[in-house]
Design a protein that fits this description.
mainly alpha; Serine Threonine Protein Phosphatase 5, Tetratricopeptide repeat
Amino acid sequence: MTEEGPAAGAGGVPTGALRHARAASRRLVWMALLLGAAACARFNPQAFRDAQSLYEASLRAFRRGVFDHAQAGFQKLTFDLTSRDSLFTQARFYLAETYFGQRDFVTAAREFRRVSDESPESPLAPTALLRAGDANEQLWRRPELDPASAQTALATWQELQGRYPESPAAAISFGRIRALNEEFARKEFETGLFYFRRGGFDSAILYFRNLIATYPSSTLVPESFILLVRSYRAIGYREEDQETCTHLAQYYPTRADVRELCGNRTARR
């Protein structure tokens, strides 16, 4: 009669050994988490020996998404340093980013603005203007809200293009402006559509005309022309109807809805 050894698991490793290994692995994970939490809890901007080490620690906290710790560190640097220090502008820029990360877009916009205004020669100044515009845009995320902050974003990006036309940030801002103008156009379109559906054709005409004149590159321009024709017909504006159909036939001759609405005008260009 032979003596039985311990039961074997996968790969011939004893089951008991596997259990012990898994338990040890779990303990190591928990220890690492606890140590990380303790390190975070001990983050104290006053404890760093110099500005460089505080900046690096704050930047690590920012990149981990621990915005409150990063903010405390960058805030101390902006208090302790002067504008002549090489880290000052970088600290203020990342301070603004911590507010953005916390969704405090009002403060973020103000702090980004300070970077570009107080350090206009800094390589970060163009990016700061871009991000100031981003922060203002975030304050306007629904078309029915007051667009004042979005208009500030638009003006900030246009300022960026004027002050730093060759910068990569300026190149990025063109796309931001196109997207925001499309949102402005959508707000006009939806308001016009609101009046159109309720029979307020005179008001609808004003909104559709304004969209076409103000945002000529919008994807909503063709549909606005079509709704203009329908509004003109609803209130008997024959001359305006014919002029608009002629324009549609000239610029959108292949659209089926234009042919249906305006008939053979597409063939008599």
